[in-house]
Amino acid sequence: MSQTPQTKPRLTTSAMIASIADEGQETRSAPFGHALVQLAKERPDIVGMTADLSKYTDLHIFAQAYPERFYQMGMAEQLLMGAAGGMAKEGFTPFVTTYAVFATRRAYDFIHQVIAEENLNVKICAALPGLTTGYGPSHQATEDIAIMRGIPGMTIIDPCDAVEIEQAVPAMAEHNGPVYMRLLRGKVPIVLDKYDYKFEIGKAKLLEDGKDVLIISSGIMTMRALEAADRLRKDNISVAVLHVPTIKPLDEKTILEQAAKSGRLVVTAENHTSVGGLSEAVAALLTRKGVHVEFDTIGLPDEFLHAGALPTLHDRYGISTLAMVNKIKHRLQ
Questions:
Q1: How many CA atoms lie within 13 Å of 258's alpha carbon, on the beta-carbon side?
Q2: Distance, CA of 274 to CA of 94 (rounded, Å)
Q3: Is 23 a catalytic residue?
Q4: Three-class SS string for 176-215?
Q5: Percent of the chain surpassing pLDDT 70
Q6: Which residues contact residue 121 at a Cβ distance below 8 angstroms, ignoring those fewer than 6 apart?
């Protein structure tokens, strides 16, 4: 008797903007917007500013709570950054939102000259980082970290989940100087709650320990790394996961301590192009300090990516959990 082959369910257009959460995974809605509202209760200097994207960056939550402290600047990202710099000079702490492609590509010079050069307290929260949208290169900010890392004094945060975003918002406000955070929006997975996690700017956290592989990861790739570690454990492969939420300044001490442990394959994992992000930052650090290890990277290729459903794209470009598992197994052979 013949059997009908099993096929994957057909993905619809909605999968191009689907949540990064796995089916059945616990999530929290709009953690950035709610965290900013909580912060603003105690901080009258907090203002929210956006370039016509409040609904799509979860800043609408803040706008509803504090309409008198919300500024809609229209589709003018350069004006948005310039105005934010002016607000910071007057003693306010602006939280500025737009898509990551617009913040880093379109408004770069204004961030560099108006905000960063004067070390102003502007907190840039940029949605759709890396491959978190299927709408092609116009919306995929696959090189945003590389662009922002070159700005002197710019702190760069790549949060893993809702828990980290909620903790990062007040930490950003307390930090003196400009901050760029890759923003996860909508229904954001909850991952770090079971690790008694506390976010600190400039600090990496060892979430899992293991003797065979060390994964150094940031952003959503830490979620994938934890999933991959669990699957590899079933094949008797012991995996450590070091979460690096702050790409700049890098926690060099912790990374060096973990990478120097002998006998482990070291793998970086990032939702970013292989050029100019976490992997190159870690590789340069290990080279400068003379730490010689078996080293590999998981990240997006140095090319313009296709449009399509996110699950398909994550598999195609090697940042899905299954792709991570397969690459690590192949590397260990």
A1: 30
A2: 31
A3: no
A4: CCCEEEEECCCEEECCHHHHCCCCCCCCCEEEECCCCEEE
A5: 94
A6: 88, 93, 94, 176, 177, 178
d(CA 220, CA 144): 15
Starting at the edge strand found earlier in the chain, the sheet holding 123-127 runs 70-72, 46-50, 93-99, 123-127, 179-183, 155-157, 246-248
Preceding omega of 311 cis (within 30 degrees of 0): no
User: From CA 95, how far away is CA 59, in angstroms rounded?
Assistant: 9
| Statement: the pTM of the whole predicted model exceeds 0.85 | yes
Handedness of CA 10, 12, 16, 21 (dihedral sign): negative
Q: How big, in percent rounded to 5, are the helix, strand and coil portions of the chain? A: 40, 20, 40
Terminus-to-terminus CA distance in the chain, angstroms? 39
CA distances from 84 to 71, 122, 210, 321 (A): 10, 7, 45, 38
Condensed to tens digits (0 to 9), the pLDDT of residues 88-145 reads 999 999 999 999 999 999 999 999 999 999 999 999 999 999 999 999 999 999 999 9
Q: Give, in degrees to the nearest 5, the angle at Cα 124 between 48 and 281.
A: 165
pLDDT value of position 217: 98
List 42, 77, 143, 270, catalytic entry: 77
- Cα separation, 108 vs 159, in Å, equals 22
* Pairing assessment for the beta strands 46-50 and 155-157 based on DSSP bridges: unpaired
Task: Tell me phi and psi for residue 28, to 5 degrees.
Answer: -130, 135
